[in-house]
Amino acid sequence: MRGFIDPARRRFLAQAGLGLLAYAGVPAWLRAVEGMGGMVTMPKAAPHRASPAFRPDVEIELICRPDTVSILPGPATRVLRYTGRLIHGPEGTLTTIPGSYLGPLMRLRTGQKVRIHLRNELSEPTITHWHGLNVPALMDGHPMYALDRGETFVYEFEIRNRAGMILYHPHTHGITGRQVYQGLAGLILLHDDEEQALELPAGEFEIPIVIQDRRFDGGNQLVYIRDMHDRMIGFHGDQILINGRPDARFDVASRAYRLRILNGSNARIYKLAWDDGTPLTVIGVDGGLLEAPVRKPYVMLGPGERVEVWADFSGRELGSELVMRSRPFTGVLPKMAERMMHGAMGGMHGGMMEDRLPLGSDYPLFAFRVTRIMRDSPKLPTRLSTIRRYRIDDTANPDRPVPIGISEAPMAMLINGRPYAPNDFLPGERIPFGTLQLMEIFHAHGDGHGGGGGMGAGHGMGHGMMGGRRGMGRMGRMRHPGEEEPPMGGMGMGRHGEMGMMGGMGMMMSMAHPIHLHEEPFQVLSRTIGAEGMEGYATVREGFIDSGWKDTVLVMPGERVRLIKPYKDYKGVFMVHCHNLEHEDMGMMREFLVE
Ligand code: C2O
Ligand code: CU
Ligand code: CU
């Protein structure tokens, strides 16, 4: 066992003294935070070693190490990165993206047996998770397997997913956000027979696009969390990098391309749209191809989400340009933060003026320039794949969805009323193995006004979810049956007015969260929006694609998302968390025990 103060909280405690106008009530809730599980004891499990019985088709060495990369003109930037080497396996399994700090691009196939030797050469612990990959719990990159410097973890798994797009990144307790931000991330493209029979654009006509936002200081070094605001809202950079490069522009031929887009940002949400108003032709999402292409005026992409776009430049003139932008939207941030970010309150971050790249503003992401005319172009297939849609009656629990209750409090974004703790399973967090589960993500307080109805009929208490207030203090816990309504916007805190300016935080704090579930992918069954979320919802609602396989879903303020997820492949512990990585690091993560 190693016990340590969760680094996110330690930084928070250090920063709390700096203050932020909105947090006049700090001392009272600082105590609450300290009493709330700021000390998390993470067991340290021995790394898995190669098993002689496992016969890999692909064997890779992957190293996490510090490096410097030239990103902006001037001094090179210190980063952390993955470097890789193919020990054994088909040619083309590993490629590097030139000039990028991103890890090697891996191409794997369904059915392949894969062994990856992950070695930590950082001066801090790290462990890697394969986001979207359906692997045994031991191979999932749980934080208890965090490697010390010099240690190696040998992953061994068979690819069970269908064709799709996986990302890999650290999952180190409390410092995932910083490690990803410093450069530790990479892509895996999975192929299978069904997908390859379509002969979608490949080779130079298939372009992986990882969107990230970063912030640099005057010496070209990465700037991370500056204050409590960055931690609470999630960290937003002021410069877009595509595949680790600024000002991305791709030279293309006048024909169709397959764009494989990942939102690899810590917290930034994008609203992807072509600058000339052409609808986006979407062919795939997180878990691979849709059944058929769909046309969208724009696509919302939260951190961790992927989208595949068919981009057809046929008929475009030599020299012409098409730009993918992030278009304006609102309603994803607490109202106070939204105003601050746009400078309406005199700017945040110590009087700094308006942010250069406010969330939800209109800015370019990447551009295509037609530099070559080609006569032939592949045709967009009308059918892409077969997806068996689950129905609610197929689930083991049609009347009692597994609750994933989001609650927001200052410095404590929670799931099911508790901060992350290993091996701390509430009754509703135990899932019977071999079943198909109906699950519901909802805002646990204030999905209507004043916190009413937050728990949802059939939820929570019915499951005994809220039993045990251990370590919760007063922070953002949900109400108990028969408990009076908290007086200040449903926060369940400030009952005696400690919150001062935080009054009404239940609504003030409500924001969008990209919720990610490990293990098998799921299908989104429905979305319902409560009154609280209505403002701004119209600016995003056309941008969700719920018809494919997902592993991360953007949940808007006031929104209730139902999904159906199989738990049929592996028993064990699998995480569920917000993929706003600052939220994850603050403890907005729980575990499901599949047993
Ligand atoms: Cu992409 Cu549990 O994370
Ligand atoms: Cu994941
Ligand atoms: Cu979140």
Write up what this structure looks like.
The protein is built from 9 helices and 33 strands. It is mainly beta. Strands 14-13-12-16-21-18-19 form a 7-stranded mixed β-sheet, with no helix packed on it. A 5-stranded mixed β-sheet has the order 5-6-11-10-8. The radius of gyration is 23 Å and the shape is globular. The chain binds CU-O-CU linkage and copper (II) ion (2 copies). Residues 129, 131, 516, 518 line the site of one copper (II) ion. One copper (II) ion binds at residues 413, 513, 578, 580, 583, 588.
Distinct small molecules: CU-O-CU linkage, copper (II) ion
What summary fits the major beta sheet?
Answer: 7 strands, mixed
The span between the termini is 24 Å
Number of helices: 9
Query: Can you tell me the overall shape?
Result: globular
- Round the mean pLDDT to the nearest integer and report it: 85
Q: What Rg is obtained from the alpha carbons, in whole angstroms?
A: 23 Å
Spans where pLDDT lies below 50 across 5 or more residues: 1-5, 9-38, 446-507
Strand line-up of the largest beta sheet: 14-13-12-16-21-18-19
Amount of beta strand: 25-35%
The percent range for helix content is: under 10%
What is the structural class?
mainly beta
How many strand segments?
Answer: 33
Features:
seven-stranded mixed β-sheet, globular, disordered N terminus, five-stranded mixed β-sheet, binds CU-O-CU linkage, mainly beta
